[in-house]
Amino acid sequence: MARQTDPGIAARIDDALDDARSVLNIGAGTGSYEPIGRAVTAVEPSAEMIAQRPEKLAQAIQVRVEELPFEDGSFDAAMTLLSDHHWSDRARGLSEMRRVARRRVLLLNADPGAAERFWLTRDYLPGLLSLIPDPYRRPGYWEQELRDQLGPIEVQTVPVRYDCHDGFYQAYWRRPHAYLDPAVRAAISVFHRLPAAEVSAAIDRLRRDLAGGTWERRNADLLSRAEFDVGLRLVVAELDGTR
Protein backbone atom coordinates (compact mmCIF):
# COMPACT_ATOMS: atom_id res chain seq x y z
CA MET A 1 0.00 0.00 0.00
CA ALA A 2 1.66 3.21 -1.16
CA ARG A 3 -0.34 5.69 0.94
CA GLN A 4 0.13 5.20 4.67
CA THR A 5 0.36 7.40 7.72
CA ASP A 6 3.83 8.84 8.22
CA PRO A 7 4.44 9.11 11.99
CA GLY A 8 6.52 12.28 11.73
CA ILE A 9 3.88 14.14 9.74
CA ALA A 10 1.13 12.77 11.99
CA ALA A 11 2.95 14.12 15.07
CA ARG A 12 3.18 17.59 13.51
CA ILE A 13 -0.56 17.56 12.82
CA ASP A 14 -1.38 16.37 16.33
CA ASP A 15 0.78 19.09 17.88
CA ALA A 16 -0.89 21.76 15.75
CA LEU A 17 -4.36 20.59 16.80
CA ASP A 18 -3.29 21.38 20.37
CA ASP A 19 -6.31 21.30 22.70
CA ALA A 20 -8.97 20.71 20.03
CA ARG A 21 -11.28 17.90 21.07
CA SER A 22 -13.71 17.94 18.15
CA VAL A 23 -12.16 17.92 14.67
CA LEU A 24 -13.67 18.09 11.20
CA ASN A 25 -11.47 16.28 8.66
CA ILE A 26 -12.23 17.63 5.17
CA GLY A 27 -11.28 15.56 2.13
CA ALA A 28 -10.70 12.77 4.60
CA GLY A 29 -10.01 10.03 2.07
CA THR A 30 -9.06 6.79 3.81
CA GLY A 31 -8.38 8.60 7.08
CA SER A 32 -4.60 8.23 7.18
CA TYR A 33 -4.01 11.20 9.48
CA GLU A 34 -7.18 11.28 11.54
CA PRO A 35 -6.05 11.97 15.11
CA ILE A 36 -6.54 9.41 17.86
CA GLY A 37 -8.31 10.39 21.06
CA ARG A 38 -10.34 13.21 19.54
CA ALA A 39 -13.92 13.32 18.29
CA VAL A 40 -13.44 13.28 14.50
CA THR A 41 -16.09 13.93 11.89
CA ALA A 42 -14.91 13.02 8.39
CA VAL A 43 -16.25 14.41 5.13
CA GLU A 44 -15.19 13.16 1.70
CA PRO A 45 -16.75 13.79 -1.75
CA SER A 46 -15.67 10.45 -3.28
CA ALA A 47 -17.76 7.35 -2.60
CA GLU A 48 -14.83 5.26 -3.80
CA MET A 49 -12.52 6.73 -1.15
CA ILE A 50 -15.17 6.35 1.56
CA ALA A 51 -15.49 2.66 0.70
CA GLN A 52 -11.75 2.22 1.38
CA ARG A 53 -11.88 3.63 4.91
CA PRO A 54 -10.93 1.08 7.62
CA GLU A 55 -13.82 -0.14 9.77
CA LYS A 56 -12.14 1.21 12.92
CA LEU A 57 -12.69 4.78 11.67
CA ALA A 58 -15.95 6.65 11.79
CA GLN A 59 -18.11 6.52 8.69
CA ALA A 60 -17.40 9.50 6.46
CA ILE A 61 -20.13 11.81 5.19
CA GLN A 62 -20.16 12.24 1.42
CA VAL A 63 -20.15 15.99 0.94
CA ARG A 64 -18.12 18.71 -0.78
CA VAL A 65 -16.14 21.23 1.25
CA GLU A 66 -17.86 24.09 -0.56
CA GLU A 67 -21.21 23.00 0.95
CA LEU A 68 -20.54 21.83 4.50
CA PRO A 69 -23.80 20.85 6.25
CA PHE A 70 -22.79 22.11 9.71
CA GLU A 71 -23.70 25.09 11.86
CA ASP A 72 -21.22 27.90 12.47
CA GLY A 73 -18.57 26.97 15.04
CA SER A 74 -19.55 23.30 15.18
CA PHE A 75 -15.98 22.03 15.76
CA ASP A 76 -12.94 23.06 17.75
CA ALA A 77 -10.83 22.61 14.63
CA ALA A 78 -11.24 21.99 10.92
CA MET A 79 -8.40 20.41 8.97
CA THR A 80 -7.65 19.38 5.40
CA LEU A 81 -4.61 17.36 4.43
CA LEU A 82 -3.15 17.04 0.93
CA SER A 83 -6.56 17.66 -0.60
CA ASP A 84 -7.34 21.36 -1.19
CA HIS A 85 -5.77 21.32 -4.69
CA HIS A 86 -8.69 19.09 -5.75
CA TRP A 87 -11.39 21.56 -4.69
CA SER A 88 -13.49 23.25 -7.36
CA ASP A 89 -13.59 26.54 -5.40
CA ARG A 90 -10.70 26.98 -2.95
CA ALA A 91 -11.82 30.37 -1.66
CA ARG A 92 -15.28 29.02 -0.85
CA GLY A 93 -13.83 25.89 0.74
CA LEU A 94 -11.47 27.86 2.97
CA SER A 95 -14.29 30.19 3.96
CA GLU A 96 -16.41 27.18 4.92
CA MET A 97 -13.58 25.76 7.03
CA ARG A 98 -13.30 29.02 8.92
CA ARG A 99 -17.08 29.19 9.38
CA VAL A 100 -17.46 25.78 11.03
CA ALA A 101 -14.33 25.97 13.23
CA ARG A 102 -14.30 27.64 16.65
CA ARG A 103 -10.59 27.65 17.50
CA ARG A 104 -8.34 26.82 14.56
CA VAL A 105 -8.02 25.74 10.96
CA LEU A 106 -5.22 23.44 9.73
CA LEU A 107 -4.12 22.84 6.17
CA LEU A 108 -1.29 20.58 5.00
CA ASN A 109 -0.14 20.65 1.40
CA ALA A 110 2.77 21.50 -0.87
CA ASP A 111 3.19 25.15 -1.76
CA PRO A 112 2.44 25.23 -5.51
CA GLY A 113 4.92 28.08 -5.90
CA ALA A 114 7.71 25.61 -5.09
CA ALA A 115 6.56 22.93 -7.55
CA GLU A 116 9.15 23.52 -10.26
CA ARG A 117 12.05 23.11 -7.82
CA PHE A 118 11.37 19.41 -7.23
CA TRP A 119 13.68 17.32 -9.42
CA LEU A 120 10.94 15.02 -10.74
CA THR A 121 8.99 18.00 -12.07
CA ARG A 122 12.02 20.00 -13.15
CA ASP A 123 13.80 17.26 -15.08
CA TYR A 124 11.10 14.78 -16.08
CA LEU A 125 7.52 15.98 -15.65
CA PRO A 126 7.42 19.72 -16.41
CA GLY A 127 3.88 19.15 -17.65
CA LEU A 128 2.80 19.07 -14.00
CA LEU A 129 3.13 22.85 -13.98
CA SER A 130 0.30 23.05 -16.51
CA LEU A 131 -2.00 21.60 -13.84
CA ILE A 132 -1.30 24.55 -11.54
CA PRO A 133 -3.28 27.72 -12.35
CA ASP A 134 -0.90 30.54 -13.26
CA PRO A 135 -1.47 32.69 -10.14
CA TYR A 136 -0.52 29.83 -7.82
CA ARG A 137 2.85 29.43 -9.52
CA ARG A 138 3.85 32.89 -8.31
CA PRO A 139 5.83 32.88 -5.03
CA GLY A 140 3.64 33.96 -2.15
CA TYR A 141 0.29 33.82 -3.95
CA TRP A 142 -0.87 30.62 -2.23
CA GLU A 143 -0.07 31.95 1.24
CA GLN A 144 -1.76 35.28 0.50
CA GLU A 145 -4.96 33.54 -0.56
CA LEU A 146 -4.91 31.61 2.70
CA ARG A 147 -4.52 34.85 4.65
CA ASP A 148 -7.32 36.49 2.70
CA GLN A 149 -9.73 33.68 3.61
CA LEU A 150 -8.51 32.60 7.05
CA GLY A 151 -6.95 35.73 8.53
CA PRO A 152 -3.52 35.61 10.24
CA ILE A 153 -1.76 32.29 9.68
CA GLU A 154 1.41 30.52 10.77
CA VAL A 155 3.14 28.67 7.94
CA GLN A 156 5.41 25.85 9.12
CA THR A 157 7.89 24.02 6.92
CA VAL A 158 7.46 20.24 7.21
CA PRO A 159 10.66 18.50 6.06
CA VAL A 160 10.07 15.04 4.62
CA ARG A 161 12.24 12.15 5.76
CA TYR A 162 14.00 9.98 3.19
CA ASP A 163 11.96 6.97 4.38
CA CYS A 164 8.60 8.74 4.51
CA HIS A 165 5.78 6.19 4.87
CA ASP A 166 3.25 8.22 2.93
CA GLY A 167 3.70 7.91 -0.83
CA PHE A 168 2.60 11.35 -2.03
CA TYR A 169 4.19 12.92 -5.10
CA GLN A 170 7.35 14.30 -3.46
CA ALA A 171 7.75 11.58 -0.81
CA TYR A 172 10.36 9.59 -2.77
CA TRP A 173 12.77 12.51 -3.20
CA ARG A 174 15.74 10.27 -2.21
CA ARG A 175 14.27 7.01 -3.57
CA PRO A 176 13.89 7.74 -7.29
CA HIS A 177 13.56 4.08 -8.25
CA ALA A 178 10.17 4.08 -6.50
CA TYR A 179 8.67 6.15 -9.32
CA LEU A 180 9.37 3.30 -11.72
CA ASP A 181 6.85 1.16 -9.83
CA PRO A 182 3.35 1.32 -11.39
CA ALA A 183 1.78 0.68 -7.97
CA VAL A 184 3.50 3.75 -6.54
CA ARG A 185 2.40 5.92 -9.46
CA ALA A 186 -1.15 4.57 -9.21
CA ALA A 187 -1.46 6.12 -5.73
CA ILE A 188 -0.36 9.60 -6.90
CA SER A 189 -3.00 11.73 -8.61
CA VAL A 190 -0.52 13.64 -10.80
CA PHE A 191 0.21 10.52 -12.83
CA HIS A 192 -3.49 10.12 -13.60
CA ARG A 193 -4.06 13.74 -14.56
CA LEU A 194 -1.25 14.01 -17.12
CA PRO A 195 -1.42 12.33 -20.55
CA ALA A 196 -0.32 8.70 -20.39
CA ALA A 197 2.22 9.17 -23.18
CA GLU A 198 3.82 12.07 -21.32
CA VAL A 199 4.10 10.05 -18.12
CA SER A 200 5.48 7.03 -19.97
CA ALA A 201 8.17 9.13 -21.68
CA ALA A 202 9.15 10.73 -18.37
CA ILE A 203 9.47 7.39 -16.61
CA ASP A 204 11.55 6.01 -19.49
CA ARG A 205 13.94 8.98 -19.19
CA LEU A 206 14.18 8.49 -15.44
CA ARG A 207 14.88 4.78 -15.88
CA ARG A 208 17.72 5.52 -18.32
CA ASP A 209 19.18 8.22 -16.08
CA LEU A 210 19.14 5.91 -13.08
CA ALA A 211 20.81 3.11 -15.03
CA GLY A 212 23.48 5.40 -16.44
CA GLY A 213 24.20 7.31 -13.21
CA THR A 214 22.94 10.64 -14.54
CA TRP A 215 20.31 11.04 -11.82
CA GLU A 216 22.83 10.34 -9.06
CA ARG A 217 25.34 12.84 -10.45
CA ARG A 218 22.68 15.51 -10.89
CA ASN A 219 21.22 15.02 -7.39
CA ALA A 220 24.29 13.98 -5.41
CA ASP A 221 23.54 16.53 -2.67
CA LEU A 222 20.34 14.66 -1.75
CA LEU A 223 21.94 11.30 -1.10
CA SER A 224 23.40 12.18 2.31
CA ARG A 225 20.31 13.96 3.64
CA ALA A 226 17.99 12.39 6.20
CA GLU A 227 15.23 14.88 5.46
CA PHE A 228 14.52 17.50 2.82
CA ASP A 229 12.23 20.46 2.23
CA VAL A 230 10.10 19.44 -0.75
CA GLY A 231 7.73 22.36 -0.26
CA LEU A 232 5.36 20.69 2.22
CA ARG A 233 3.74 23.26 4.49
CA LEU A 234 1.52 23.07 7.56
CA VAL A 235 -0.69 26.14 7.81
CA VAL A 236 -2.36 27.01 11.11
CA ALA A 237 -4.94 29.75 11.56
CA GLU A 238 -5.88 30.56 15.16
CA LEU A 239 -9.39 31.99 15.16
CA ASP A 240 -10.60 34.83 17.35
CA GLY A 241 -14.23 33.79 17.36
CA THR A 242 -15.40 36.38 14.83
CA ARG A 243 -16.81 35.38 11.46
Can you walk through the features of this model?
- It is a single chain.
- The chain has 243 residues and is α/β, with parallel strands linked by helices.
- The protein has a single domain (7-238), classed as Rossmann fold (3-Layer(aba) Sandwich), CATH 3.40.50.
- The protein is 30% helix and 17% strand.
- The protein has helices at 7-17, 47-51, 90-100, 119-123, 141-150, 182-186, 190-193, 196-212, 214-218; strands at residues 22-26, 39-43, 75-81, 101-110, 154-157, 160-161, 227-228, 232-238.
- β3, α3 (90-100) and β4 form a beta-alpha-beta unit.
- The chain is globular.
- The model has no long low-confidence stretch (mean pLDDT 93).
Summarize the structure.
32% of the residues are buried. A six-stranded mixed β-sheet has the order 2-1-3-4-8-5.
